[in-house]
Amino acid sequence: MKNNEETKYGFPESYECYNIHNQQLILFPEKCIFWKEEKTLILADLHLGKAGHFRKAGIPIPSQLHLEELVNLSKLVMDLAPKKLLILGDLFHSEVNNEWEYFNSFIQTFPELEVILVLGNHDTYALEFIPNRVKVFTETLVIGKFIFSHIPLNSDQFPNNLYNLCGHIHPSAKLIGNGRQILNLPCFFFSEKMGILPAYGFFTGKHTIQPTFKDSVFVIAEGKVMKA
């Protein structure tokens, strides 16, 4: 649903708001969530360094992709003034390369921002190089009524009164356009017990989800978040 009073953040027509446990999660077309009550910016799956990893294999992917991702993130931090940046895994893609320095420069720009990482499967390639300032949680993190993870949790892995927010899947939804064209768009996916964020990184794949009528899906298209 739209929440017009959120126009003070400068995104009057581009986002949606989803409520869980009486908490407002503002969904941004930049593929991240602002948790209003906790003033926390949440995202998943940047896969920094993936471009460099592919260049080493002879595939010409420009490193500017990662720089643009962090420029956009910097704009969000300046606009929203979050207290925390919570990354739900796969901040990095592979072994250390020069593109990691983009992230170091980013966090130095915001010295008051608390940066938290719930480790993803790709982050384990270079644990020793994660900046000391980043608070690292190896599997899950509980804040209020939410349990955060990288990989989606089974319902028997956490208490019934919590809601799992996670990444890893890179969810997308298929929509049929007016001209019968099929669009496969990144999306936010919410089921009864779990919400999955789209991959924040530009250079990532997508996994098409199969929602039920009980689920809520918000696709990202043309710079807007829209309920599917």
Explain how this protein is built.
It is a single chain. This protein has helices at residues 50-56, 64-80, 100-109, and strands at 16-20, 23-28, 32-35, 40-43, 84-87, 114-118, 135-137, 140-143, 146-149, 163-166, 171-176, 182-190, 194-196, 207-208, 216-221, 224-227. It has 228 residues and is an alpha/beta fold. The termini are close together. It has one domain (15-227): Purple Acid Phosphatase, chain A, domain 2, CATH 3.60.21. The chain has 3 helices and 16 strands. The strands form 2 sheets. Strands 8, 9, 10, 11, 12, 13, 14, 15 and 16 form a 9-stranded mixed β-sheet that branches. Strand 8 (140-143) and strand 9 form a beta hairpin.
